[in-house]
Every structure is written in structure tokens, then in C-alpha cells.
Amino acid sequence: MSGIELIGVPIDSVGRSGGTELAPAALRELGLADALGAVYAGELEVRVRGEERDPETGIVASDDVLATTSILRSSVLRALKNGGRPFLVGGCCAELPGALAGARDALGRIGLAHLDGHLDLYDGTTSPTGEAADMPVAVALGRGPERWVQAAGGASLAVEDTAIVGYRDKEEPLEHGMLQAEELGPGLTHLSVDELRAEGPGAAGERVASSLAARGAFWLHLDVDVLDQDVFAATDYLMPNGLSWEELGGVLGPLASAPAMAGASLACYNPEKDPGRRCGRALVEALEAGFSKPG
Q: Which of 109, 127, 152, 258 is deepest in the core (most CB within 10 A)?
């Protein structure tokens, strides 16, 4: 797949230096641009700093999160208008609302294939941490903290244009009162990891890609914590019963190779937890395989 423009997004919504904000540089050193046949456009001047929750939004380091969203919105809009396919190398999932806002601004309507171990439907009240990475899908649907939704120019997604795939975080969100997928209505596509396996990752990936493409262009987001904790340890929120590399490849391939895939984002790789870069190298190989399948 050609025309990919890699854009580094060095943010970590815990509000401290290090962690996932080191991922863009680490993955560049591991050859991600060459693996994808992409142009490297550099890192954006964004950071998330501060460990206090804003009393209005409920977000840790709220001002930096909102500023990052605005910068990402402009950057993705510019890349798409110039004919490229932006690939955001995060960083954490807080990059997603800005990405989708820019894609909406450029394309008018955008879908989302969200490969993640979590639903990401918290808001500033229900999130137990206040980290922006808890909330990106809720914000994109217009259901997150009001100021963040406003920074993104309103909702970017319709429920029927959204597919959340591979999640396995049911108990804790129920305890904290997070918005559940079922509450968003029957138009939402949501496949837990067990449902994904029952259908077959390849078949599910093809079905989701076909469904989203029938409505228009879509964005592909990959949070590495969709992988099992024993498969990929270099992330901050480890959980059992995640995907294997083979399963990820099965679902990723049809989505990454679809002509309707307008852009993509990668999140939650923490190089500080990968001193030998074993996880990072495996991730680059998986992305190379997924994005090289014929569309």
C-alpha cells in the first residue's frame, strides 16, 4: 500500500515524560517507515504534561490533550487533502479524536475500525484515572467531555459507522459506570475477543472492512493491548485472553489493505517496557505483513 505518510505523535496521557511518548522514535529506529513503504513526516510538537484532573473536563492534563487534538485535526486534514494516507504513530489512544476530526473535515463522513483490548467509552466522570486514553471513542461519538468534543469540532463518528473489535474489559467498566456498547444502539458493530474468535479473525476483518467501506472511507486504529499480555508485554494495561500475532494478522489484513481505509493510527507501545525491542520488532513485522496484503 503506497502513499502512507507516517506522523509521530509523542504523547502519553498519564501526563509524565517517557512511556508511550517514546514510541514514535523507537519505531522509526526499528524501520517502520521502510516496512510500510512510507514517507516519514516527523514528529508533531505535542506533549501531555501534568498529573491533575481538570475539574471541568475530568481529564488529566486537559489543556495539553485539547491542544494536541487541535494539532492532530489540522495535520490529518492537511495530509488527506494532499492525497496522502496519514498513519499516526503514537503515543496513546488520546490521538484518536483529533485524527477522526481531521478525517471528517477532509472527507465529510468517516468510519472507524477500532482494534483494542478496551472499549474506550469512558468520559471525564466515569473514568477511574482521568487519562484521556480512556475516552477516545466516546469523544469521537460526541459522548465524552464537552470541551474535548468541542475541540474536535463536534462528533466525528456516527454509531452505525463504528466497529469496536477485540475488546475484553467488561467487568471494570461496569463497576465504574462506563457507557456500554449495547447502550449505543443496534447500529454499533462490537465484537469481543471471544466473538471475534468464534467468527474467525479473517472473516471478521473482511466483514467489518466490507461493512465500513459500503458507507464510505474509514479510519483504522490499532491499540497494541488488543494482543495478549504474554504475546506483547510492552504496554501499560496488560490483560490475559488477548489476541495472538496470528489472530491479529487475520483481522488486520483485510482492514489495512482495504481501498476505503483512508488513514490509520497506532497506540500504546511503551518502549520503556521493551529494553531489547523484541516487542517493537515483532510489531513492525506484523504491520508490514498487514499493510502489504493486496487490497
A: 152
State the Rg of the chain over Cα.
17
Taking the C-alpha atoms of residue 71 and residue 44, their distance in angstroms, rounded to an integer, is 8
Beta strands (DSSP E) in the chain are: 4-9, 39-43, 85-90, 111-115, 162-167, 189-192, 218-223, 261-267
Residue pLDDT, tens place only, 131-167 = 999 999 999 999 999 999 999 999 999 999 999 999 9
CB 87 within 8 A of CB 264: yes
Residue 82: CB atoms within 10 A of its CB come to 11
Q: Is 118 left (phi over 0), alpha (psi -120 to 50) or beta?
A: beta
* C-alpha cell read off for 235: 504496554
Strands 39-43 and 4-9 come out as parallel
Query: Strand pairing of 39-43 and 85-90?
Result: unpaired
Q: Is 273 helix (H, G, I), strand (E, B) or coil?
A: helix
How many residues are given for the chain?
295
CA 171 remoteness from chain centre:
22
- Residue environment code for 4-20, b if the CB has 16+ CB neighbours within 10 A, otherwise e: bbbbbbbbbbbbeeebb
Find the distance separating the first CA and the last CA of the chain, reported in whole Å.
8
Q: Kindly give, in sequence order, each residue whose CB lies less than 8 Å from that of residue 82, ignoring residues fewer than 6 positions away.
A: none
| Domains present along the chain, CATH in parentheses | 4-292 (3.40.800.10)
Burial class (CB in 10 A: 0-12, 13-18, 19+), 173: buried
Torsion of Cα atoms, 134 then 139 then 145 then 149, to 10°: 150
3-state secondary structure of 109: coil
Measured at the CA of 41, the angle between CA 148 and CA 147, to 5 degrees, comes to: 5
Q: pTM higher than 0.90, yes or no?
A: yes
pLDDT at position 294 over 90: no
Cell of 126: 466515569
